[in-house]
Amino acid sequence: MPSLRSTSGPTMALASAALFGASTPLAKLLLGGGVDPWLLAGLLYLGSGVGLGILHLIRRMMGIAAAEAPLNRADLPWLALVVLSGGVVGPLLLMIGLSSTPASTAALLLNVEGFATLAIAWVVFKENVDRRLLLGAFAILAGAIVLSWQGGPAGVGIGAIAIIGACIAWGIDNNLTRKLSAADPMQIAMIKGLAAGAVNLTLAFAHGARVPAVPELAAAGVIGFLSYGVSLVLFVLALRYLGSARTGAYFSTAPFIGAVLAVVLFGEPVTGQLVIAAILMGIGLFLHLAERHDHQHVHEAMEHAHRHIHDEHHQHEHGPDDASGEPHVHVHKHQPMTHRHPHYPDLHHRHGHIH
Q: What is the reported pLDDT for 3?
């Protein structure tokens, strides 16, 4: 019988993907209305930060904030890098790419983010990646190449290159965010939204961007709150349960959602190139989703704080000042343990593997 941990992670990752996937064609609509790309990137993130900030204040007033571990001083350098790569570089490159790329093509190209996330997790952070995941990643990459290739001397379009660059920036962001995933996901997403929004808006105004009309401002705020804010909260929670590579794999469903919306909203043709790319990416996604990782593994002793219940990995004593009821948050120690069960590289399963 699947555990809550094994089912909630994929569910949160897929919900995050659905919200983010819808943002691509909707942002394309705003760009078509004359909104500056850099300014739009700022508005989307500012909408995310402000919306989550309001929810954060409401949550504190209701006493719910204590249900998650807050960020600490050691997290701040990682958070700064997350804001730079995922909140400034990524959205700017995406808006530039959307300016010259069909929305359906741009939506499917965003599959490269999953590949970039997996590759960085595997090569840089040594996260376990088996052959099935690798085959799936290369299928997704092949689909992206088919989709972006324009043929002849033009080769890969500048817009496609910008979108792929955005995916790489977000792949870096996703892996860095994993280091923060034990902390409050709403606090992480709120700070990222406010900081990235402020930086992008400042740079946009510095190069002459003008404030759009109220309807465009409101639309950007709502899209940002849902597709960047709520989506990121769910993504951080998924990272907590799944690790970077697998969360990125589930998140690869986002471009398919965006592509379908783009065809509906803009009446874009369903070309043979689009179908072939979608088939390749679909094969890659299936290989990722069908994975089952089960072996005997060792848990080293560790001490940390995060939201938890008393499951098989959390059998510890409580001090007089620890929160009562479940789930709760407090600093706790894990004793060494050896056992076997299906698992992902979550907060408690980031161990080495012998191949």
A: 46
Nearest CA among 134, 155, 135 for reference residue 145: 155
Sign of CA dihedral 124, 126, 128, 134: positive
Q: Is the dihedral of CA 101, 105, 108, 114 positive or negative?
A: negative
Pair 142, 285: CB distance under 8 Å: no
**How far apart (Å, rounded) are the C-alpha atoms in residues 229 and 217?**
16
Instruction: Read off the tokens for 132.
Output: 């099935």
Contact (CB, 8 A) for 257 and 23: no
Residue 69: strand, helix, or coil: strand
Read off φ and ψ for residue 149, nearest 5 degrees. -70, 125
DSSP alpha helices (H): ranges in the chain? 4-32, 37-61, 76-82, 90-98, 103-109, 112-123, 131-148, 158-178, 185-206, 214-223, 231-242, 244-251, 254-266, 272-289
pTM, full prediction: 0.75
How far is 204 from 41, CA to CA, in rounded Å?
9
Q: What is the pLDDT of residue 191?
A: 93
CA 23 to chain centre: 13
